[in-house]
Each structure stands twice: as structure tokens, then as C-alpha cells.
Amino acid sequence: MAFLPALNPRLARSLLPSVVALVLIFLAFFSYTRYAPNGTPTFLKSIPGINSNSKTEPTPTIDRRPPTTHAPPKYKPTPTWAPPPVVDPFPLLANSAARPPPIPHYNMPRPNMHEEYGLERPPPLFIGFTRAWPMLLQAVVCYITAGWPADNIYIVENTGVHNKNKEGKLSLQNPFYLNHTTLQRLGVHVVQTPTLLTFAQMQNFFLSIAYQHDHPYYFYSHQDVVVFSFEDGPDNYDRPATRDYDFYDDEDKQAALYPAAANQLGYRSIYENCLRDLQMAIEKGERWGFRFYQYDHLALVNREAMDAVGGWDSLIPYYTTDCDMNGKLGMDGWTMKERRVGLINDVSTTFADLEVLYRNPALPRPKFVDPNPPSPEMQAKIDKEMAEKEAKAAKEEAARTDIEEKMPADPVAYFRILNKIGVDMGHYKYRARDVRNTWQTSQRGGQGEPFYYDPVGFARSWALLNEAGRTVYSEKWGHRDCNLVEGTALRMDDQWKVEKDWEEKKD
Ligand SMILES: *[C@@H]1O[C@H](CO)[C@@H](O)[C@H](O)[C@H]1NC(C)=O
């Protein structure tokens, strides 16, 4: 906890609860993390039989409740609509023992590429996972086929189901299902959180791993992304939620906006661009905190900056905890820049068959599927909201029918088709209000499985905690908007000391 003396005592006091939480997480993790390269914590390995894959039938529910004289509880109406069962999006891996296909040759990472960029060690990429396996698997396969070395990818399993996924005890329809075998076959690591963490706690957990394994820098990505390298060179598609880029100079701007295409001299995969961007951040000598690639759908973190501002506020569990972090970094003079290293789509859907990412020309033209299509009522609302856009899309769809159905053998030509679908997926996610996060509630099964939690209840609790976090944030800073640096004169020491800066609406 070397960062404590660096903080002033007032701040340290107000951060004490988060620090205590951090210490607890840290300690809990310490006993867990001596994980071997295959992701098996050695601590757990030493307990005989704990990792055995012996499947036991779930015991049928027996009513063990002592008798009662109270009236029976009143039940909520049964939901009239449920999403269809999810389908594993990578049949090749799910149904055979085949090795994953080879990735496009131009995206193959050169051995020890990090050394070419002056880095002693490759920084890890953390991808947190709580729910929705098809989305996670898609993100992982995207990173690998875009050229990120599988061995540098760490899936952080934050499901709260302890070793049950590792033991293969959960079924695909369980929201918390994650398949360790499949991830191992893809060559990525799985790290388990000791218990279910919130977003803020998981960020602190990434930091904790970075301390444990001595990584001064690390990347993290969300699981709801479709990511590509600049295989086709410059790309002018409009992607929702893209922010303005920060460039260091004209040459830098040129390199970011007009990248060389695959097979051309100077082509760089997204991984190589990330290493290069890290090297630049270090060499510019800036006091830098984050580098964002499509905000934090993919982000690069400087551990030193996290240190200086006391990490993430664990008491602001989900949304606005980033506003708090960015505010603290900004007030303390750490830069955050929006940079361009590849093509990142924020999505809520998956390719129907992820094998297309390996460019298999024998597969039919790719489609994307919504794991949680809107209910009929929701769909009616969406249709109304976007009657116009919809009509246009339908016309485009009709025009598309005369497109050749066969997929090209050239991986770059194949990429062009995938890229366009990735962009469409992004627009689909942002097509209407309130549909962006529906993918999180796509699976509704798992009754009777270990650590089962009612999926609808989980989603509702999440929303409540999220709202509570917004309240904590607004009281902490006396400010509600996500612009502590640009929108206020607040300083780090002001947290929890200022009155609110807005008028409560009176009616
Ligand atoms: C995990 O995936 C493998 C294929 O990679 C499959 O054989 C196995 O049945 C899956 N496990 C579970 C629990 O679904």
C-alpha cells in the first residue's frame, strides 16, 4: 500500500473505506493468485480433487422449509416474454476437438514484439467477464484473429460461482456460464476473482494483479466489442460513440488516419499499434494516466497514475465510477488521450459463427444474431422511434440481395465484409434508447445449478446499485455531471467537503 503516504491525510481518511476494501481484495487475491500459465491457481491445485471434472447431477429440490402458519407469499405475474435460448457461437470449438484455425498470416504477432517497442515485458490485456459467454468468446476471438497474442490475454472471471465453471458445472443457458476448456484451447488465461466484484472493484483487482506480477502498464477491454486491425488501410465508417482523437503532431495524425493495409509495407496490427502507443506515451515523458481506444472499450492504464489518485472508488460500483476516476486524474494533472490503434465496435450482438473471424471461405456469408432480441412491445417502441432509419435500412437490405453469396478466399477481401458487419452491429446497438445493454440479460437459465442467482433479479439489483453509485458520486463531489475537471473548480481535497452545486427541482 505504498501509495498511502503520498496522499494528504484528509484525503487518505476519506478514502479509508475504499482502501480497506482494496486491502481485503488484495489479501483475498494474494492467497489465490499464484496461478500457473494454464490459469490454474497453484493454491487450489494443492487441494486434492478440487479441480476434477467429475459431474454430479444437480440434486432435485426438496422442500426443507419448516412448516409455517403464515399466508403464502404473493407472487409477481409470470413474465409473458423470455428471450430464446442462446446458441454457442463457435460450433467448431464446441463440437469437436479441433485446434482453432490459423489466423491471417499478416496478423501473426512476431515473437517478443514488445522488445521492438522498448518494453521489457508484454503488458497484459485484461477482459472482465460476468455474464454472456457468446459476447466474451466473440471479443476473445476478435483480439486473437486481429493479432493480439493469446498468451497475453487474461480473462478475469468475475461470476461469483467460485470453481463451478472450472469444474464444468454450469450450463450454457446460465448467464454466468464460461467455458474454461474452450478458453484454454484458444490459448488465453483465466484468472478468477475470489468473489463477485463490482466494476470499480474489478478495476482495482486489475491493479492488484499488476502489482502482484509487477506490470507497470496494462490494457483492459470490455467484453462487448468487435475489434479489428486496419487490414484494409484507412477506414471512414462512422461508428457510434466515437470521440475526437488526440494527436501529438501531424506525422502522428497521418499514421493514425492513413494506416498501411495488410500485406503493405508498414502494416501494423492493433496489438503492434498498442505497443507503439505505449512506447510513445512513455517517451513523450508526459504525466499520463489513460490512453483510450474508443473510450475505454479498450484502454491502456499507467499504474503509477492509479497509485497517485488512490485507485478506483469501490463505493461507486458501476457507472460514474469512471467519471470519478477521470476527474481525480485530471485534477492531479494526469493526461487521458483518445487514440486510434484499430477498429473498435461497441456491440450487443454476435456473429452467428465466430469461425468467420478466421476467414474460412467455405462458410456462408456471415450474419449477426441478437442474443436477446427485444420483446414484441419493446420492438414496437423501437420501430416507432426509428421509423425513418428503419425504412432506409430495409432499402439497403433489399439492395444487398444481389450481392454474391460466396465468401472470398483472400483474407483482406473477407475482412471488408466482416468490417462492414461489425459497423452494422455497432449501429444496431445504438439504434434506440434503452437497448444497448440488453445483451447482459440474454440468458435466463441455470435453475438448480450451483450458486444460481435469479437472472432478472440480478439485472434489477445491478440497476439499483448503479443508481446508488450515481448518488454517491454526486454527494462526493457536490456535482452530478461527468465533467469534474472541465465543469467545476474542484480539487482532489474537496471530495465529501462541498455542498451540491445544483438546485433540486421544486414542484
Ligand atoms: C466446454 O467446451 C468444450 C469444448 O471446448 C465442451 O466439450 C464442453 O462440454 C464444454 N463444457 C461445458 C460445461 O459446457
TrEMBL record:
Annotated stretches, region: Disordered: 49-78
Entry keyword Coiled coil: yes
Entry's transmembrane regions: 12-32
Coiled coil feature spans: 377-406
Entry keyword set: Coiled coil, Membrane, Transmembrane, Transmembrane helix
Protein name: Uncharacterized protein
Protein source organism: Apodospora peruviana
